User: What shape does this take?
Amino acid sequence: MDYEIVVIGSGPAGLAAAIAAYEQGVRSILVIERDRELGGILQQCIHNGFGLFYFKEELSGPEYALRFIDKIKHYGIEYKLNTMVIDITDGKRVIAVNREDGLLEIKAKAIVLCMGCRERSRGAINIPGMRPAGIFTAGTAQRFVNMEGYMPGKEIVILGSGDIGLIMARRLTLEGAQVKAVIEILPYSSGLTRNIVQCLQDFDIPLFFSHTVTQIHGRKRVTGVRFAKVDENRRPLPETEQELPCDTLLLSVGLIPENELSKKVHLEIDPLTGGPVVDEMMESSVKGIFACGNVVHVHDLADNVTKESELAGKNAAFYVLEQTQPKARGIKLINGRGIASVVPQRIHPENIAEQLTLYLRVQNIYKNARLNVATADRVLQSSKKLIMVPGEMQMITLRKETLLANAEPDSLTIEVAEEGKSK
Assistant: This one.
């Protein structure tokens, strides 16, 4: 079974990449999805807020997905559902399995990785206690409520202020549950500001910053939690502990790019993002394997995933059609002062159409600061930001002419420049 492009995953990244590749002239495309329907995580996100930037209108997750699913079907792009990719071998051979076909070996000229991300579980954060029923990740609870029709509990405590947890605080309240508190170990939220306002403040749900759960009570079912304030090293302060009765604990403690397949094919992984190192074409360290969306780095907005994935699909098509140019050494992008991560990690100015968007996250809260793009001796570009927080992705647009107008450096440093502080 041979295809020119195989797209693994059919969430917002996979759908956009497949459509973009088709629109560049590639017709032999296969989308592989492990779930029972196209759309990925969008199908369980029934809240609105999608499409504001991409479509200039407000849509729910399923509505946003449907725009792309309709196009996939209109173009006749092939897809396989309930199909799990278990390996990618040398020569871009994709090994997958499903009930109808059994074991599949699919040869591809190019592969686009769009596997998304997974949630951190209780085992990743080591909360003391027994293993009672009533402990869920926020995404699991979201699927239970929105797709399966089950309520996870009646008295809820949420650990972590990630966007899914914030959205579920509102969702469960609307379904009649009592959300007693959202507890965040950091001194700031890891979710979008709009979700803090719309999902917590509008419903009078308490939010405790610099606190964490120190004990889960209950043997058969959760009966409550103990939580405490933490110090600057995130260690609980025993004298501040409080008891909070509940029957359910939701965990919204971070997302991890799903890269087991990426590791099997020996892609270079960025330890800061947890995803593959990519260049301006969203091509990984292995020629002909592209990656986009949450498998590369966790996004805030599906709209940004779509735009990034269109770039990956388009360049995968160029690769298949042999319309790409040999790459020079390239410019390495370095995380400077205040920068937690930046994507892409390497760029080749000659392959940029007119401009390129850099996606980055800052390490702390900054007000009235600047984002600078600098060489070793001077600032090439600077943009003023009224406020930057770790929970919201920042973007910088680099123009090709700016890069080519300067002698090509080996690296560029992205950094936060605070008012009154020199480089």
The domain at 121-253 is CATH 3.50.50.60 (FAD/NAD(P)-binding domain). The chain has three domains: 2-118+256-324, 121-253, 339-418. The mean pLDDT is 94. Residues 283 and 289 are 6 Å apart (CA to CA).
